[in-house]
Amino acid sequence: DQAPVVTIDGPSGSGKGTIAKLVADRLGFALLDSGALYRLTALAALNAGADLDDAEKVARIAANLDIRFAIADAEVSAILDGVDVSQDIRMERVSMAASKVAAIPEVRDALLQRQRDFRTAPGLVADGRDMGTTVFPDAPVKIFLTASAEERARRRHAQLQGRGVSVSLRDLLEDIRARDDRDMNRATSPLAPAEDAVVLDSTEIDIQGVLQRVLDLVQQRI
Ligand code: C5P
């Protein structure tokens, strides 16, 4: 029997990363931040000077990634080739590149098994775009978390300002729209709720409210 999976999909800035962490913590489940795998692929490709349109080359990079996730002080860091790149993979340049490499079917194939390997007892919380549709279609609990693009841009803006990074809200909104557009319109595993997903909008419900809804579903179904 396979360990249960809670999938949390949605666009960037919907709060799914935060919710996934809280749920995993509450349940004592493992956590898969699948976006980090695409970000690591993108960073490795940029570092290698690869042309991001070269599907074969980028897929080879994805298949051969030497990565590790380390946990310290409840924070997960991403280690690429032995180097902590947790900060680097969050840069706007890498975010854009990640959404580009994520549109390559061969890259998605190369990362599929790696993602499924995170499934382990007593359970897994998986956050991404296609966790409920493609990677864990048999998950007993599937959440699709959304929020308006404006709200997501505002959150990202506040987050960056908190870190002393100054960017314009308009540029962020444009970036978010471009990424949404690419994520929703790609041919392979586009961003969309699974048929059996529960759709929640974090513009209307706060983090605690969303967390409670997810925990209720887990209680009913796992
Ligand atoms: O979630 P995060 O913003 O870290 O994801 C980075 C990029 O990786 C997204 O813009 C998306 O294009 C891609 N991604 C994906 N499928 C996933 C997770 C992320 O295509 N399951």
UniProtKB/TrEMBL annotation:
<dbReference type="GO" id="GO:0016301">
    <property type="term" value="F:kinase activity"/>
</dbReference>
<feature type="binding site">
    <location>
        <begin position="10"/>
        <end position="18"/>
    </location>
    <ligand>
        <name>ATP</name>
    </ligand>
</feature>
<protein>
    <recommendedName>
        <fullName>Cytidylate kinase</fullName>
        <ecNumber>2.7.4.25</ecNumber>
    </recommendedName>
</protein>
<dbReference type="InterPro" id="IPR003136">
    <property type="entry name" value="Cytidylate_kin"/>
</dbReference>
<keyword id="KW-0808">Transferase</keyword>
<keyword id="KW-0963">Cytoplasm</keyword>
<dbReference type="InterPro" id="IPR011994">
    <property type="entry name" value="Cytidylate_kinase_dom"/>
</dbReference>
<dbReference type="InterPro" id="IPR027417">
    <property type="entry name" value="P-loop_NTPase"/>
</dbReference>
<keyword id="KW-0547">Nucleotide-binding</keyword>
<keyword id="KW-0418">Kinase</keyword>
<dbReference type="Pfam" id="PF02224">
    <property type="entry name" value="Cytidylate_kin"/>
</dbReference>
<feature type="domain" description="Cytidylate kinase">
    <location>
        <begin position="6"/>
        <end position="220"/>
    </location>
</feature>
<keyword id="KW-0067">ATP-binding</keyword>
<comment type="similarity">
    <text>Belongs to the cytidylate kinase family. Type 1 subfamily.</text>
</comment>
